[in-house]
Amino acid sequence: MAERYEVVVIGGGAVGENVAGRVAAGGLRTVLVEKELVGGECSYWACMPSKALLRPGEAIMAARRTPGARAALSGDIDVDEALRRRDALASHWDDSGQVEWLESAGVDFVRGRARLVDERKVNVIEPDGSMRELEAARAVVVATGSVAAMPPIKGLAEAAPWDSRKATTARSVPESLIVMGGGAVGAEMAQAWRTLGSHKVSLIESQDRLLPGEAAVVGAALAQSFTDMGIEVRTGTRVVSVERRDGSIFAELDDGEVLSAQELIVAVGRKPATEDLGLESIGLQAGEYLRVDDRLCVVDVPAGWLYAVGDVNGRNLFTHMGKYQARMAADVILGKKALAWADATANTRVIFTDPQVAAVGLTAESARNKGLKVRSVEHPFGAVAGAAALGEGIEGHCELVIDEDRGIIVGATFIGPGAGELLHAATIAIVGEVPLERLWHAVPAFPTVSEVWLRMMEKYGL
């Protein structure tokens, strides 16, 4: 006999936890199914361990910029201590605390591999091989996330490279490293392992700049910073073949040059974790993103019972945006008035490199591609008193993208130390569609880096 619930959630990462907790808090009997660790990618293999690996180098670089503090620096980073801190932030890959939270939130938990077998019906194979049948009276929510993509490059799979999981959980610092992919993951991992002690790091990006989805100034600033810290940056270059032999990995580039290193990280993108969900049983294609409408309801499934939130729907591959979608989907399932839209208009992203890169909304290029009449207003990150207080040689860039017809901000980019802390003000301005004439009266405290807002308002002509 099937166990009946009102909501069945497949996937126990941060996104699945959020939707399950919210619908349970709304009074719906809910079960969450997870085959690995409750807390998911972000907690154990991405956000938390990667930031722990980046933090020692970030602290050292901040001290070096600060007169008086730099004199206190001596010796090298304690790698063993840094890795112990990484392990602690990843809860030593123990999800018992997360499972306890689910139970305290009134969510039943089943550990196992879930597969859709019919409309509203899910079978779960538990670790001991036994099967449980679950049936959802109201909704099934797919929150299985994404996995690292492995491009079809000759010899790559056989060379056993590091994917994002191996890159964040390695037990020692590689002597040398090749990183394929200049997006957020590749950039962060190149910096993390370089500052932790990798003597030679080569970062390869096939497009013409790092972080190609952001404004062009971002890639240029990051490439210069990486070069200064001893990372070799190669853009407009592709790896065409890979071989592991004699304890090293050899990567042949499209210009015929061969690079060698102890390890190679593949960080060229993600793909949806939908290969083994039984999607074919309800007429969907395995391995594809699940297309959703603004209620997060899967559009290719009739009757409106199947929802997809987070990476698995391909709308916005960031944990915080997936959690936002989870809240929206939960409210729809609960019958509240809810409409998901911020993940398309005010999507926030931070890359925790040095300099830190923070952006929200549209770039000037993407805004113009949408047909908007926009004007960009720029100001150097370091040209305010708050930046000077952070230390010497503070550089960076701040930019607002302004919709001229409506007089509102539709995008913002900040590059500099701690730039992510400037982001939420821009997000509020974009989500609230705050007119610039009104925003002019939001007075930044002195001396803070937020004074760049005043300078950009002045440059706009207010």
UniProtKB/TrEMBL annotation:
Family that this chain belongs to: Belongs to the class-I pyridine nucleotide-disulfide oxidoreductase family.
Sequence ranges assigned to domain Pyridine nucleotide-disulphide oxidoreductase dimerisation in this UniProt record: 349-454
GO BP term, pick one: 2-oxoglutarate metabolic process
InterPro entries with a match to the protein in the record: Class-I_Pyr_Nuc-Dis_Oxidored, FAD/NAD-bd_sf, FAD/NAD-binding_dom, FAD/NAD-linked_Rdtase_dimer_sf, Pyr_nuc-diS_OxRdtase, Pyr_nucl-diS_OxRdtase_dimer
Transmembrane segments: none
Entry binding sites for FAD: K51, T144, G145, S146, D311
FAD/NAD(P)-binding domain location: 5-314
Coiled-coil annotated spans: none
Cofactor or coenzyme needed: FAD
Name of this protein: FAD-dependent pyridine nucleotide-disulfide oxidoreductase
Species assigned in the record: Litchfieldella anticariensis (strain DSM 16096 / CECT 5854 / CIP 108499 / LMG 22089 / FP35)
UniProt keyword annotations, A-Z: FAD, Flavoprotein, NAD, Nucleotide-binding
GO molecular function: dihydrolipoyl dehydrogenase (NADH) activity; flavin adenine dinucleotide binding
Cofactor note: Binds 1 FAD per subunit.
